Amino acid sequence: MRYTPFAYILLHPLPSSTDRCHNVIMGVFFLEDRWLPKSVLCLRDYNRHKFLLDLIAGVTVGLVALPLAMAFAIASGLTPQAGIYCAIVTGFLISALGGSKTQIGGPTGAFVVVIAGIIAVHGVDGLFMCTIMAGVLLVIMGATGLGTGVKFIPRPVVIGFTNGIAVLIASTQIKDFFGLRLDKVPGVFWLRMEALAGNFHTLSYEATALAMFTVLVLIICRSLSPRIPGPIIALLLATFAVYLFKLPVETIGTRFGGIPSGLPHLQIPRFRTDLIHGLLGPAFTVAMLGAIESLMSAVVSDRMSNDRHNPNVELIGQGVANIMSPLFGGLPATGAIARTATNIRSGAQSPIAGMIHALTLLGILLFAAPLVSYVPMSALAGILMIVAYNMGEWREIPQLLKLTKTDISIWLVTLALTVFADLSVAVEAGMILAALLFISRVAATTTVSQVTDDYIEDGRMHILQDKDIPYYATIFRIHGPFLFGATDKISVVTENLHKLPPVVILRLRNMTALDATGLFALEEVAKKLHASKRTLILCGAREQPAQLIQQGEFSEVVGPENICDNVQEALRRAEEVYERLEAKFVGK
Fold it and tell me: DSSP secondary structure string, 110-169?
């Protein structure tokens, strides 16, 4: 157990003090590292070089965040400055108080559909109340250790509502993408698509060309290098084209009258007790969505920066940020995967980069607000189309379709309900189906069979007691059902990656059940080991896990020769791998 230097001082008598009241203070300020924000922990070895890297990364991601913040706010039915205010306030607080070293917080596409629905039913006052309520829930989840509870949401549910949200975001941008003349876009998906199709003849060729140009610039920038800030380049070029050629397209200035310059104003939202009951469901949805999105983003951040986030501290930071956001006219916020990746690729070393990103946005608001008026709506729509595509998890679908019919049905139900019903209903239905699936799979692990001579003989090839494990291999075992909610335990395999021998054997003899989330976790381990030039061998899988491994074409990840029937065969395969490595080394 480690403590901060400040807490260490409080634990020891001060040489010049005759007073022993520090023992009382100690009881109040006795802080373990596991409850401290990453911003405090990173200061222990912070230096000028890291600050310069953080400065470059913070300014870069701040420029990238500007068009996204405005686009998400507009798509949600709010003014563009609401998105900027949210990005400034929550971006600073999430970095300062969160549990991830390089995560960037702010408004994201995941909330667009939810926010639009809340505003349609309860108005802007209802949205601000809902955001504060969700923030309180997030703080409670983090403080009570429920940050790790988000892992109990299975992967088909996450993919289902991520696909659905992407479809809904894209559908809300069709009007501005093509410059359609439509006074009001319906909130219901099929009515929206009907209205857009009926008014498609009103499209603006200038707006459409500008939107397609924006998409093209984003694709080119992405293909050249992930480090290039595509959104800001596309936005600057589109805005310059509108200003230079006087294109007759709608801009932020023509629709909203521009954005006001100056600091965000502190304003306590109007609290209406009559809305509390109706907002409990949406607040829970916002809190759960924020928790899932932020922790998924934190996991991506960990992989890219070789760090390990603290989920409970991260949720507390997210909660505080969402409580504060409405006080400045902002919307709900969470961890943003794309901006986090941009932050890391730009060289971020600590949460200071996230704080600088917020200050960069504040500087733009103070000194460059009038220029934002020229930003065309069609360019923002083009940016959001790419965001919708990137967040859709489309590459997961072919892999998911190879799994069991139950996993596929959970994904389809969640996707359909997200698009055609409501996100809250979709998540609830998905979780109920997943719970039933969990119960059925756990029940299926119970077997009754007679012990025969063949059974005893077959078991000899699986036991470890009479096997010699060579120095070039190590064996890990999974015991019990490896389903959603338990998959984080596989991290023990790679947490000391540099100490592992060339061959890692994963013994599945006692793994009684496997689902899509568990298979995805195994794939992640295999990819990490492969990236470190190590070989993963699976052995001894029982009937249900073996069938799912085959359906999911896991052999393409590790190679069919590295999936063995028993540990005896796996050890022989390990010997072959090592001999090949040794021969290769000698040949050099």
Answer: GGHHHHHHHHHHHHHHHHHHHHHHHHHHHHHHHHTTGGGGGGGS-HHHHHHHHHHHHHHH
